[in-house]
Write a structure and sequence with these properties.
This protein is α/β, with parallel strands linked by helices. Helix content is 39%, strand content 19%. It folds into three domains: 3-41 and 61-82 and 219-299 and 448-508, FAD/NAD(P)-binding domain, CATH 3.50.50.60; 104-212, no CATH class; 304-438. The chain has helices spanning 13-24, 67-75, 105-112, 117-134, 149-162, 164-170, 174-181, 185-193, 201-210, 223-234, 276-281, 287-298, 373-378, 387-408, 410-414, 424-431, 474-490, 496-508; strands spanning 3-9, 29-32, 44-47, 50-53, 82-85, 88-93, 96-100, 214-217, 238-240, 245-251, 254-260, 265-272, 307-313, 322-328, 347-351, 361-367, 416-422, 461-463. The strands form four sheets. Strands 1, 2, 9, 10, 11, 12 and 18 form a seven-stranded mixed β-sheet that branches. The protein has a seven-stranded mixed β-sheet with strand order 7-6-14-15-16-13-17, sandwiched between helices.
Length: 509
């Protein structure tokens, strides 16, 4: 078989990013993807005359001069044509409706939570400052595991000086900060409702900071990986779809290629865009390295999984300017995902733009039911989805639809043309992300920032994606490709950081 410099498992955004950076610097790169389209979680599919994305509603980092357009420009990829997401939110807390409008979020919170105006002012002031410090233009950090002790100390001191509010509040669990600044449960759960997971407060500051200020690709999220693939091919890289990797070939502690489900073998250094759990399960030899990595991961907490209810709505139901509807309980901000059932789990409904040529409008309800729910969704041994799985899934789907009807009424249900539920089992099967996690490792205070390295104990085997620095989010995952390529290219005397910076200096001139 033909030999490559690098073989990348998975055409998710981390794998495609690494592939583009390496191909731009004359590496011979092959990307193998088991599905019919590239993109991982940044993909689209069609049902009943409507296109659906996999759950991402909009991206702040798609704005001009943000990270995603910069990556695309550096690779020579075509730009993404976007439209602004400038809608409102309706938040139901124990059935009571609260309205937050684009451009007046803080004032609307004060109106909706009369008597707690000072609490709203303080909380949103902290969130605004955290976002200012995060987007302050300070230089991107190096991975913490690449810093020695002195560098870590210097980084900590510098961060405290440059980002004092971020360091004081942003890295603490959101519940602690909410409890510190208000005793209004409804206010806490309203803030929590937009992304109802236990996370550090910085994550909520970011979510509310960019709410109704994102961009959405006119052609759907699939437009992003499609553009990245074009630049990869233009630079000589290859993408082979419908090629599922089943084994990473390792001998004498060195990875030298992969084997696919069809028995084909491809040789070269290996970069895995799958979760590290799956990556090491594909190694059939070198047991000591496999056991060592599994020990490293044993105590690491995984970010919770998600369900997505995809719904197609006809034009009889008018959403007006609303782009998000949340449904939660007044004490939900205190809960862990393991406490949720289909009868009480928070629901986040994202209303997407109707794409040209589509007959219906896509609505996606995100539902944080855990991977373990109902005995791992009633799967059989080997994660087989049998009749019990389908019955359990259908029951959950009907209960969620019933709860949505209780909030939005029969008019919504009468306008519903199609619906189907994806479970955490679906997400795991589709993305090779352990337990269907869509954020990698936990983003709680005790776990946040404890990344595993992109290099491994097996020579010529690397990791990329949401499980390594800098972590979750489309921009973060694409940045992981940059950090990995920077480390790899260093061996050839190439300073990718300088190359990237100099490129944009020349563009500005």
């Amino acid at each position: 078989m033909e030999k490559y410099d690098f073989i990348i498992i998975g055409a998710g955004m981390g794998g495609l990013s690494a592939a583009n950076f390496l191909a731009k610097h004359n590496k011979k790169v092959l990307v193998l993807e088991k599905h019919t389209v590239p993109g991982g979680l940044v993909t689209s599919f069609s049902r009943k005359d409507v296109h659906f994305d996999l759950g991402i509603h909009g991206l702040y980092e798609l704005k001009e001069n943000q990270s995603i357009p910069q990556f695309l420009e550096y690779w020579g990829a075509p730009p993404i044509d976007t439209i602004p997401c400038h809608g409102d939110m309706h938040c139901y807390i124990d059935g009571e409706k609260h309205v937050f409008k684009h451009g007046s979020i803080k004032d609307d919170f004060k109106r909706e939570f009369s008597g707690y105006e000072a609490d709203v002012e303080k909380l949103f002031g902290i969130m605004e400052t955290i976002n200012q410090e995060m987007f302050s233009g300070t230089e991107a950090p190096e991975p913490p595991y690449d810093m020695n002790l002195l560098e870590l100390i210097r980084f900590g001191i510098k961060s405290k000086k440059q980002k004092p509010i971020f360091m004081k509040y942003g890295n603490k669990d959101a519940k602690k900060i909410l409890d510190q600044f208000t005793d209004c449960d409804e206010l806490k759960s309203a803030i929590y409702s937009y992304c109802p997971y236990p996370m550090v407060f910085m994550a909520f500051a970011y979510q509310w900071g960019v709410f109704s200020n994102n961009e959405y690709p006119k052609a759907g999220m699939q437009a992003i990986p499609n553009a990245v693939v074009k630049s990869l091919i233009r630079m000589g890289g290859e993408l082979k779809l419908n090629n599922e990797v089943t084994e990473i070939l390792v001998e004498d502690g060195m990875a030298y290629g992969v084997r696919t489900k069809t028995g084909n073998e491809y040789y070269g250094k290996v970069i895995s865009n799958a979760s590290p759990q799956y990556t090491y399960n594909w190694i059939k030899t070198e047991e000591k390295y496999v056991k060592k990595m599994h020990r490293k991961m044993a105590d690491k907490k995984i970010f919770p999984s998600i369900c997505a209810l995809f719904m197609a709505i006809n034009d009889q139901y008018n959403f007006g300017k609303v782009e998000c509807i949340t449904m939660t309980g007044r004490k939900d901000y205190q809960k862990q995902p393991e406490e949720y059932t289909d009868e009480n789990v928070p629901i986040v409904m994202n209303i997407y733009p109707k794409r040209d040529g589509d007959r219906y409008r896509p609505i996606i309800a995100l539902i944080p039911l855990p991977y373990s729910y109902g005995d791992n969704w009633k799967t059989e041994e080997g994660k087989v989805r049998g009749e019990a799985y389908r019955e359990h899934k259908n029951r959950v789907e009907e209960n969620i639809l019933c709860r949505i009807k209780n909030h939005l009424g029969n008019d919504f249900i009468n306008a519903l043309e199609h619906h189907e539920l994806s479970t955490p089992i679906t997400y795991e099967r589709y993305t090779y992300s352990q337990h269907g996690s869509f954020m990698g490792w936990s983003v709680e205070e005790k776990e946040y920032g404890k990344f595993i390295k992109q290099t491994t104990d097996i020579k010529n085997l690397y990791l990329v994606g949401q499980w390594v620095f800098p972590g979750f989010g489309v921009a973060g995952v694409m940045a992981s490709g940059y950090y990995l390529a920077k480390e790899i290219l260093k061996g050839d005397g190439i300073d990718l950081k300088k190359e990237f910076t100099d490129h944009f200096k020349s563009v500005i001139k």
